[in-house]
């Protein structure tokens, strides 16, 4: 009988390490296999069963999938380290007007009216575009995690204050889930090991007064009425 396992796909820039550590602590006998998937293929990979769950970027074709939003990434501009835009800690879209901008074929920033002058040549990948930025061919607009993933000493990046953010989500096939998928969803949502979906809330502890009243009610039901406190009678000596 094959050993049970769970396969998590994730797009470049996503960091599933925290979830992987938690999974290893809770399920040391069930391997969590991590697979990097291209952003354009992420939804299809989970839909076809190549991976059990996937961390993907939105927007995407999520038909037939259940989607849990995770976080919104800051959009940044990657520029040479000595570029004029590095004078400010944060820039705006207007600062990129007139700048040559690279748009790779695997672009993941959903910004239809992005600023800048598009370079006619479109590199195949973000990694290729990074090389062109280093060569002085233009700037590049990407999610912050991709700028960090492809970090180079001769390049830097600046957040674009008025740019749209880049949503990241967890997706899996819609419908009933296996116990392993449910467990992973719980880890992502921050559920504790002792909790589970549909588990009843723990009964709160009773106060001392509530316990006393409960005892009195039980005695009354048994025909024993609690005597009211009063002065103690002294016996004869």
From TrEMBL:
Q: Does the keyword Transcription apply?
A: yes
LysR substrate-binding domain residues: 18-190
Q: Where is the composition biased (Basic residues)?
A: 225-237
Annotated region described as Disordered, given as residue ranges? 191-237
A single GO molecular function term of this UniProt record: DNA binding
Q: Where is the composition biased (Low complexity)?
A: 214-224
Q: Which UniProt keywords apply?
A: Activator, DNA-binding, Transcription, Transcription regulation
What Gene Ontology terms describe where this protein resides (cellular component)?
Answer: protein-DNA complex
Q: Could you tell me which SUPFAM superfamilies the record lists for this protein?
A: Periplasmic binding protein-like II
Q: Name one Pfam family in it.
A: LysR_substrate
Is the keyword Coiled coil in the record? no
Which stretches are tagged as biased composition: Basic and acidic residues? 203-213
Which PANTHER family does this one have? HCA OPERON TRANSCRIPTIONAL ACTIVATOR HCAR, TRANSCRIPTIONAL DUAL REGULATOR HCAR-RELATED
Similarity comment: Belongs to the LysR transcriptional regulatory family.
Q: What name does this protein carry?
A: LysR family transcriptional regulator
């Amino acid at each position: 009988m094959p050993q049970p396992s769970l396969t998590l796909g994730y797009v470049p820039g996503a960091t599933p390490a925290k979830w992987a550590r938690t999974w290893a602590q809770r399920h040391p006998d069930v391997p969590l296999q991590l697979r990097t998937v291209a952003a354009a293929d992420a939804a299809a990979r989970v839909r076809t069963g190549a991976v059990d769950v996937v961390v993907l970027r939105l927007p995407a074709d999520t038909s037939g999938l259940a989607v849990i939003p995770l976080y919104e990434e800051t959009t940044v501009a990657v520029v040479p380290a000595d570029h004029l835009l590095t004078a400010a800690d944060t820039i705006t879209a207007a600062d990129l007007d007139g700048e040559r901008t690279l748009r790779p074929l695997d672009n993941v920033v959903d910004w239809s009216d992005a600023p800048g002058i598009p370079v006619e040549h479109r590199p195949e990948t973000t990694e290729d575009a990074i090389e062109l930025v280093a060569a002085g061919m233009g700037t590049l607009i990407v999610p912050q995690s991709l700028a960090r993933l492809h970090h180079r000493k001769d390049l830097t990046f600046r957040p674009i204050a008025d740019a749209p953010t880049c949503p990241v989500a967890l997706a899996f096939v819609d419908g009933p889930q296996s116990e392993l998928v449910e467990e992973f969803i719980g880890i992502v949502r921050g559920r504790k090991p002792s909790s589970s979906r549909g588990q009843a809330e723990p009964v709160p502890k009773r106060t001392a007064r509530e316990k006393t009243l409960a005892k009195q009610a039980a005695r009354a039901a048994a025909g024993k009425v609690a005597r009211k406190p009063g002065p103690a009678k002294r016996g004869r000596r």
